[in-house]
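In the lab's daily routine, each protein ends up as an entry in a very long ledger. A line of letters takes care of the sequence, but it says nothing directly about the fold. The three-dimensional part falls to structure tokens, numbers that each stand for a local backbone shape. The outcome of that step, for a single protein, is printed below.
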Amino acid sequence: MSGQVIIRDLGLDGNSANNTTAETNGMVLLADNAVVENTQILNMRGSGIQLTSTNRAGTPANALSSSFPTLGGRIAKNVISKPGGHGILIKGVDWLVEVLDNQIDGTGLDGIVLDSGSVCVVRGNDLFMIGKNGIVTKAHVFITTVK
């Protein structure tokens, strides 16, 4: 397992208009119980926030064993605007994941993607001008409320 990461009150601008060659993601978190709150992520060529158990090459975050996926997380009260990829991507995460009260607009792909074997609570998110689907579930998840 990896350690906990807490990120609050941070602004990131990927400058996609001038950064035309790199697929820049706002945040890629490979940490247990990661918390991202009250951030503003703008103009990324990739996704806004990714909570995942593997790196870009597909290698597990836990170098000792792929049998220990990333455990849980909370993504709340963030503004994600104009990512070229997904707004929020949850992939390969076990345990409880909360995606609460985020504002996502202008995505190139889906607003929120839940590709995980975990319990996911998605509530109070505002999604608009989404490039493909608002919310995609690719695995067993539990959604309480979708706004």
Remarks:
- The chain is about 0% helix and 40% strand.
